[in-house]
Specification:
Structural class: alpha+beta
Oligomer: single chain
Number of strands: 15
Shape: globular
Distance between the termini: 48 Å
Helix content: 10-25%
Length: 264
């Protein structure tokens, strides 16, 4: 990707203040391409993201919320966005967060600098490079005939259940992670893993890789402190599940449709 140093006249500009995305403070207004705005010279950082619909895209951090704009938590903003803009917002948020958290070298604590021509910060003292961080995590939707295993963690929205999820450990394959996490979180054994899809998830830098897995044994034993409740649910009697802006929402709905289609 070409990295630019100056913004173009009309572009997608995603502004952030203290980790929140700025939206127009006009009821019903949505993000749209805008020219350079009068408050943009106050920007703390500016990151080129690529192009969308033929226009350059920028993530820009500001010290304060300018007049005519309002901050919104990223998750809430994402729920209102069409897919292309949602993907852009996810990318912008992760790059802004990476830049914020890598201002100093992790090896010698020297202030880092942007490396020309790369999406990287470099230490001028020891040469340590820091690239945008991604933390791979698996998601596993366990199934058996006519039922799905869904669970909820203590921090979930009340009434919402989802597939199981957990981070990949060093030296571990995705498949090994699925098997381990399912057994750790609910005490079940699985096989016949099938890859479903992936999603970048900016809270703060996860990369979700979703699978389905067939139950082959075990009884549900929720992991203390991690799983508040887990149960088998019939396909026509699911509890509340995540919305479609998350890969979990797509995974569960598409799996239900596939299982119902196979049974008919």
């Amino acid at each position: 990707m070409q990295l630019l140093d100056t913004p173009s006249p009309l572009a997608w500009r995603l502004f952030f203040v203290a980790g929140k995305l700025l939206l127009p403070a006009v009821e019903g207004a949505a993000l749209a391409p805008v020219p350079v705005l009068d408050f943009e010279p106050t920007a703390s950082s500016r990151h080129y993201l690529g192009r969308l619909d033929g226009l350059d895209c920028w993530a820009i951090t500001l010290p304060d919320v300018p007049d005519g704009w309002q901050p919104m938590a990223l998750r809430a903003a994402m729920m209102q966005m069409p897919a292309p803009l949602l993907n852009l917002a996810v990318r912008a948020a992760q790059i802004v967060e990476w830049d914020r958290t890598h201002r100093y070298c992790g090896a010698c604590a020297t202030p880092t600098e942007h490396k020309p021509g790369e999406r990287a910060r470099v230490c001028p003292s020891c040469g340590q490079l820091a690239y945008p961080r991604l933390s791979p995590a698996m998601m596993a939707l366990v199934w058996r005939e006519g039922e799905l295993l869904l669970a909820r963690s203590p921090g979930f929205t009340p009434g919402i259940y989802s597939a199981l999820a957990g981070f990949v450990e060093p030296g571990e394959t995705l498949e090994e992670c699925v098997v381990r996490e399912v057994e750790e979180e609910v005490g079940l054994q699985v096989s016949d893993l099938r890859y479903y899809g992936s999603q970048s998830w900016p809270f703060p830098h996860s990369f979700m890789l979703a699978f389905t897995a067939r139950w082959v044994g075990g009884e549900i034993v929720p992991q203390a402190g991690e799983i508040e409740h887990a149960a088998w649910f019939p396909l026509d009697g699911l509890p509340g599940i995540p919305p479609r802006f998350s890969i979990a929402g797509h995974l569960i709905r598409d799996t239900v449709a596939a299982m119902q289609g196979a049974a008919s």
